[in-house]
Amino acid sequence: MEDRSICLFYLKIGACRHGEKCARKHIRPQELKTVLLANLYPNPKTDRNSDISDSNESFEHFYTDVYKRLAQAGEIDSMLVCENENFHLSGNVYVKYTSTVSAQQAVMLINQEWFAGKPVYCELLPVQSFHDAKCRSHDTNTCNRGDHCNFMHIKKLNSEVGRRLRLAQDKSIAIKRLRKLFDDETWGEGYLEPSKEKYSRNKKPKVAKEAENVVEEDKNGEKEEEKVEGAEKTSETAETESKEEEEELEEVSTTEAVARLFS
Q1: Which pLDDT score, from 0 to 100, does residue 167 have?
Q2: Cα 72 from chain centroid?
Q3: What is the CA radius of gyration of the chain?
Q4: Could you tell me which of 84, 94, 81 has the C-alpha nearest to residue 47?
Q5: Is the pLDDT score of 162 beyond 70?
Q6: Phi, psi (degrees; rounded to nearest 5) at 114
Q7: Alpha helices, DSSP H only, in the chain?
Q8: How many CB atoms lie within 10 A of CB 40?
Q9: What percent of the chain has pLDDT over 90?
């Protein structure tokens, strides 16, 4: 049976509409991996002073900026942004890390910073699964409570943007591990810089081109060697034939030679 003295909204969502005045207990487990940045996203629906327009491009810039900063504290498992209109959920950014150490590090770092001219409030949450905190009806546009629902209405992010951020994080983590392995903090600096070349699926990588050039040079070298060997063989053959011809010639007198012609 569920303990009615515990606030289930705070346990599942990490945010309660009653706040600190809630009559039920807001329990915080010792090991927490989820971090809340309350009202960080300047939701254009509720914030009239928001500098962010209600467009996908503006949201992607916001999401990317925040994700990169939070990833500096540790490996991010997932990150969500609420677009609810009620104050205790509006603009909330939820970040789940892969370790409790990373989550604690994020709280210490982010609580000292400002965003969009306002101080950032960051705290650890008991949320274990975003699946239980999300409003499933919102995903199918069938939520009867609208944007004042007390479950998370997650603002949708372009899947390609999310994929690129995860790949960039994986790359950064791999380089950090290699630096630790090689005991060299400067190793792989060139790999962290973004490439200025546009990606093309049909374009062959430089390494492959260089390999092809080497193969062609080897082939050309082999052909030249074959030509030289052929020329040497030809000269050797000519010399051999001339020698054979010389050997075939007999030393005979003029009289004998004339006699053979008329014989």
Answers
A1: 92
A2: 15
A3: 38
A4: 84
A5: yes
A6: -120, 150
A7: 8-13, 56-71, 100-110, 130-133, 136-139, 159-182, 189-192, 206-248, 254-262
A8: 21
A9: 27
- Number of residues that make up the chain: 263
Domain definitions of the chain by residue range: 8-157, 158-193
Each residue's pLDDT tens digit, 219-239: 666 666 665 566 665 666 656
Residue 256 three-state SS: helix
Res. 15 pLDDT band, cuts 50 70 90: confident
For residue 117, the tally of other CB atoms under 10 A from its CB is 8
Q: Tell me which amino acid residue 246 is.
A: E
First-last CA distance in the chain? 132
Strand partners, 36: 94, 123
78-107 tens-digit pLDDT:
999 999 888 888 899 999 999 999 999 999
Cβ distance 32 to 126 under 8 Å? Answer: yes
Tokens 């049909």 label which residue? Answer: 202
Which CATH superfamily groups domain 8-157? RRM (RNA recognition motif) domain (3.30.70.330)
Rama region for 16: left / alpha / beta (φ>0; ψ in -120 to 50; rest): beta
Residue 221 has a CB neighbour count (10 Å cut-off) of 10
Q: How far apart are CA 103 and CA 121, in angstroms?
A: 14
